[in-house]
Amino acid sequence: MTKLWGGRFQKETDHLVEDFHSSISFDQRLYQYDIKGSIAHARMLGRCGIITEEEAGAIVRGLEEVLAEIKAGQVEFSVEAEDIHMNVEQLLTAKIGDLGKKLHTARSRNDQVALDIRMYLKDEIDQVSGLLRQLQEALLDLAERHLGALMPGYTHLQRAQPVTLAHHLLAYCQMFGRDEGRLADCRRRADVMPLGAGALAGTTFPLDRQYVAEQLGFAAITQNSLDAVSDRDFAVEFTAAASLVMVHLSRFCEEIILWASAEFAFIELDDAFSTGSSMMPQKKNPDVAELIRGKSGRVFGNLQALLTMLKGLPLAYNKDMQEDKEALFDAVDTVKKCLLVFRPMLETMRVKEDNMQAAASKGFTNATDLADYLVRRGLPFREAHEVAGKLVFHCLQQKITLDQLSLDDYSKFSTLVEEGVYDAISLKRCVDARRVPGGPALEAVREAIAEARQRLAASK
Ligand code: ARG
């Protein structure tokens, strides 16, 4: 087959090279964007008198037919045509004849591919953002169902202070809210139209770049032709933002895996979101959560691949940049798949509130509150800490909890303790006394939920 760029060549491309440098196997997913971009370009060429309006009309109609045929699965792409851009042009020329050869006037695949990826990424960002919003809404609903569910809060995975499940869930809501913000930020920088940059140095034809941008729904046009064809920051930014989504999902999954163990027994995953063992009949495994945790590595790897691909490239376009697509596509696919399955897994899990509360009541999670009680009775905090620590040690030896100590026992450690101590160290009190904004008290959590709901409504 003759190459679209075959003019200066005397020899056929080696078949090994043909296969090696072709990207059609993966960049075909850009076909809709490529064709929409070409339609806008052709219309602009007609409008600016670079081709006639009739020619532009015929090219547009041809492209629309090619689009419909690809959509209907009637097209077999050719490896020899290298990539989606040249495949589409070839299909167009096969359909409308030599006129198809005018489409590429004042354009290069370098600005074309930059355009396609930006269009693709904007759409995908909208989808990922939608999934993130649904997840946050699910978290808020779940938090409302478990507003007063006491559970131990941990540091170093050691029981630390009591919180509620609602407060714990809201922590993740914050993370996914920031993820949404990062994606919106990335989207703003992807929303810039590069066509007109040509191969690297613009074009001698008087293009109306603004018109192309408007047709394709871009907010602005790129300001430097060299940058326009060599910029892949938006791919890096997306993959970095996606990496953080995966970090957040993975941390949450780690907790779900722990919580589902017999040792914690805080939750039970729904049968529909767990799997069995081929050997051990009793097993019910949190495979979905484990797989999400495992898949985080793919996305981090993609980020690393993109950064490494870019860091040594001189301006402007270099073929290395073809490697951007598989990394970006895989990051998009992975983060979407994980978000999609994570939410229903979360929504269907059964929460064992009694076990959470029982765990919170062990482990002396109210020891800080005992110290705070002594502080309110006049003891400097450092001394109160010491007294409470001794009381904890005493309880450990007696195998009892702080609220099981009698006032008589307390008096051996401090004369400041009175009847009010039992209320001060009751778990519910420990939580409800933490009324600071952002704290776990019922009221603070209710406010946090209302605030998150408002934020979600505003970001729609
Ligand atoms: N398939 C190429 C890519 O994905 C398109 C741009 C090719 N440009 C070129 N001058 N070879 O990057």
What can you see in these coordinates?
The protein has 460 residues and is mainly alpha-helical. The chain has 3 domains: 14-105, Fumarase/aspartase (N-terminal domain) (Fumarase C, Chain B, domain 1, Orthogonal Bundle), CATH 1.10.275; 110-149 and 163-352, Up-down Bundle (Fumarase C, Chain A, domain 2), CATH 1.20.200; 359-445, Ribonucleotide Reductase Protein R1, domain 1 (Orthogonal Bundle). It is 62% helix and 5% strand. The chain has 19 helices and 6 strands. A two-stranded antiparallel ribbon has the order 1-2. Strands 3-4 form a two-stranded parallel ribbon. The longest helix has 37 residues, at 109-145. The chain is elongated. It starts with 14 loop residues before the first helix and ends with a helix. The mean pLDDT is 96. The structure holds arginine. The site of arginine has 11 residues, from α6. Arginine (ARG) binds at residues 23, 27, 83, 109-110, 113, 317, 319, 321-322, 325. Keywords: Amino-acid biosynthesis, Arginine biosynthesis, Cytoplasm, Lyase. Residues 364-432 form the Argininosuccinate lyase C-terminal domain. This is Argininosuccinate lyase. It catalyses: 2-(N(omega)-L-arginino)succinate = fumarate + L-arginine.
